[in-house]
TrEMBL record, chain A:
CDD domains: ABC_TM1139_LivF_branched
Keywords: Amino-acid transport, ATP-binding, Nucleotide-binding, Transport
Name of protein: Leucine/isoleucine/valine transporter subunit ATP-binding component of ABC superfamily
Similarity field: Belongs to the ABC transporter superfamily.
GO biological processes: L-amino acid transport
Domain ABC transporter span(s) in chain numbering: 2-235
Native species: anaerobic digester metagenome
Single GO molecular function: branched-chain amino acid transmembrane transporter activity
Name of the encoding gene: livF
Length: 235, 423
């Protein structure tokens, strides 16, 4: 579905991605794990066009997208849920969701999707009129994912959805990610620090170290790999 | 004496002590200007000690009142749930359609009758206040909705004014044909400024826009061949009224109604914009730029429309300004002007339409009617600004959003009940 070839991304003089290549097969959950500052978020930012890559190619369903603006990439069906949630604090839950459907005009479909989301996260339904900024961290994460879903993405880029959440909530979020993948056939590219959890729900995984991909395999194999165990699972 | 009153007395004593300190401090600070009076003729110094006493006596109760207000304010914010009477009154008025309709009708009648009740001079003042309402609402798009701090807004006002003045001077173009041209030119300048500042936010944006405002003014001041420099352009025609000759006071009334109509038009457009797609995109952009991009909002287009639309309104008002004064020069377009318009937006309550209107009326009418106090005018003006910012930091009228949240909370409960009932 998405092919990334020899991607190089810079922040001014900082070379954050050094020839990154990978494939995201349609309908799967693919995870990208790695230490702090490895370049995981940068990879997502490059795909979504917010931090455009300097060299390399990104092909989405046959279309090269590495030179498109973020809104064009979004319109093609790639949605990023950025790190740290970044919901709109002064807008209500409902308005935040509406922002997710910004480019859509089919009212019926939007209403349906809102119902779907309130089913997925009943907690959000209770708080639909609360301001985003007053939600708890976990609720904000639910909202961030839901807002991303509102545009019916083909590819969902999730950046550390478990960040700062209690174990129970992490379980819930990961179960929901699996559910979204299963029910809507949404391809999900999941960036995580919580390698253990991520590899459990993912089909495939990539390991990134200082801007380069160092390992790639099925999630099951990575879970068993000595290197991953030592570096990321803390075993 | 019962034990409960002891902390109260202790508190009161400490408050009085502090206020005494404050009044001593004021006596010390004002000593050089209030007490020492040099008599240049006799080459002596008069020591006006009595004045020092008066200052001390005046500052002491003021300080007490001030401290009491601050205390109440802190307590007020501590128990946020309880509504103030203003808020409750606001709720009542908004909730009851009959009351709000009646108030609106009364207001409309007053506004329409204004030029016939009051003198030409009063009408003139009202015209400028209404012009600032428009300017405030225009800048509110940029600052209040899109969250882009623009300190050079006066530049677009100048573009509008000079467009009409020059078109009238060189080609004899009338007000009505110059109005859209002036606004259009201002729009173009808005986009021109928008492009280079697309990447900037906050302080940096403020500095660049400030510079832009000054550049426009300096060009107008120095490019004599184009704008006649500091001497300005005189003899600009007043708006024509179907070719009928009008007396000066009739012109004023006519202009008043033109401005009134434009204000109504502005309110209509701005309230529409707020709830439109682009309005939501502005608000989202103000809140979080990256999230905004992640929602597929075109950042460039959104920012540019905010700048362009804001500038358009300044252009409109610029044309009116030229028509009203019939003489313009660059001195009318200094940074002070931008600062006043920004104060209107901030004091009135960012993002709130009624707030901006009230802000403009207060900020423009107050100094006019304070002329009675002549030399203390600016002092009172400055003090009232400080007071408003201390006691109502969100502006005189708090944005609709707060009210919205309050009502919606009730709605949630209802919703919850309904859900429970249906379950
Ligand atoms: N806006 C920026 N400006 C300059 N350098 C940046 C910027 N954002 C990230 N970097 C640098 O790029 C490198 C990769 O950062 P990135 O955010 O992609 O890491 P990450 O893998 O997501 O880490 P984490 O797990 O901590 O979120 C880091 O060295 C970081 O310092
Ligand atoms: Mg990151």
């Amino acid at each position: 579905m998405l092919k990334v070839k020899n991607l190089h991304t810079y922040y001014g003089g900082i070379h954050a991605l050094k020839s990154v290549s990978f494939d995201l097969p349609e309908g799967e959950i693919i995870t990208l794990i790695g230490a702090n500052g490895a370049g995981k978020s940068t990879t997502l930012m490059s795909i979504s066009g917010i931090v455009p890559p300097r060299y390399g190619e990104i092909i989405f369903l046959g279309t090269p997208i590495h030179q498109l603006s973020p809104d064009r990439i979004f319109a093609l069906g790639i949605v990023q849920v950025p790190e740290g949630r970044r919901i709109f604090p002064q807008l209500t839950v409902r308005e935040n969701l509406d922002m997710g459907a910004y480019l859509r005009t089919d009212r019926k479909g939007i209403a349906q999707d809102i119902d779907y989301i309130f089913n997925l996260f009943p907690r959000l339904a209770e708080r639909r009129h609360q301001l985003g900024g007053t939600l708890s961290g976990g609720e904000q994460q639910m909202l961030a994912i839901s807002r991303g879903l509102m545009s019916r993405p083909k590819l969902l880029l999730l950046d550390e959805p478990s960040l700062g959440l209690a174990p129970v909530l992490v379980q819930l979020i990961f179960a929901t990610i699996e559910k979204i993948n299963r029910e809507n056939k949404t391809t999900i590219f999941l960036v995580e620090q919580n390698a253990n959890m991520a590899l459990r729900i993912a089909h495939r995984g990539y390991v990134m170290e200082s801007g380069v991909i160092t390992l790639e395999d099925t999630a099951a194999n990575l879970l068993k790999s000595e290197k991953v165990k030592q570096a990321y699972l803390g075993l | 004496m019962n034990t409960q009153s002891i902390p109260f007395i202790r508190r009161a004593v400490s408050e009085i002590g502090r206020s005494l300190l404050v009044s001593c401090w004021f006596m010390f600070l004002t000593f050089p200007i209030m007490v020492i009076k040099v008599n240049p003729l006799e080459r002596t110094i008069d020591w006006q000690w009595m004045r020092l006493v008066w200052i001390g006596l005046a500052v002491f109760p003021l300080s007490l009142v001030w401290r009491w207000l601050m205390m109440r304010k802190e307590q007020g914010s501590a128990k946020d749930g309880e509504d103030s009477w203003q808020k409750r009154l606001g709720e009542r008025i908004r909730a009851d359609r009959k009351i709000s309709a009646a108030i609106l009708a009364l207001l409309a009648a007053f506004v329409v009758a204004f030029p016939f009740i009051f003198s030409s001079y009063q009408t003139q003042i009202m015209i400028s206040a209404l012009m600032y309402v428009m300017l405030g609402l225009g800048l509110n798009i940029v600052v209040g909705l899109a969250g882009l701090l623009d300190l050079g807004y006066v530049a677009f006002y100048a573009v509008g004014a000079y467009s009409y003045a020059l078109l009238n001077h060189h080609f004899g173009l009338g007000f009505w044909s110059a109005l859209p041209i002036g606004a259009g030119l201002a729009t173009i300048f808005g986009i021109l400024l928008g492009f280079p500042v697309l990447r900037l936010r906050g302080d940096y944006l403020a500095i660049v826009t400030l510079g832009f405002g000054e550049i426009i003014r300096l060009v107008l001041e120095n490019w004599n061949a184009f704008s006649q420099g500091p001497s300005g352009i005189a003899g600009i025609s007043r708006p024509g009224f179907f070719g009928i000759e009008l007396s000066l006071s009739q012109h004023t009334v006519f202009l008043y109604f033109i401005v009134l109509a434009l204000v109504a038009f502005t309110i209509l457009v701005v309230s529409r914009l707020r709830n439109s797609r682009i309005g939501r995109a502005w608000i989202a952009l103000r809140e979080d730029e990256i999230a905004c991009q992640a929602m597929g909002i075109d950042k460039t287009k959104t920012k540019l429309t905010a700048f362009a639309l804001g500038a358009t309104w300044a252009g409109f008002v610029g044309c009116i300004f030229a028509a009203k004064t019939t003489f313009i020069n660059p001195a009318s377009f200094t940074f002070m002007e931008s600062a006043i318009i920004l104060s209107i937006v901030v004091l009135g309550g960012m993002g709130s339409i009624i707030g901006v209107i009230v802000g403009a009326l207060v900020l423009i009418l107050l100094p006019e009617y304070l002329r009675a106090f002549s030399e203390y005018r600016m002092l009172v003006f400055g003090a009232s600004m400080v007071l408003i910012m201390v006691f109502r930091p969100q502006g005189i009228i708090t944005g609709v959003r707060r009210h919205y949240r309050f009502r919606q909370k009730e709605g949630t409960e209802e919703q919850g009940e309904r859900d429970a009932a249906s379950a």
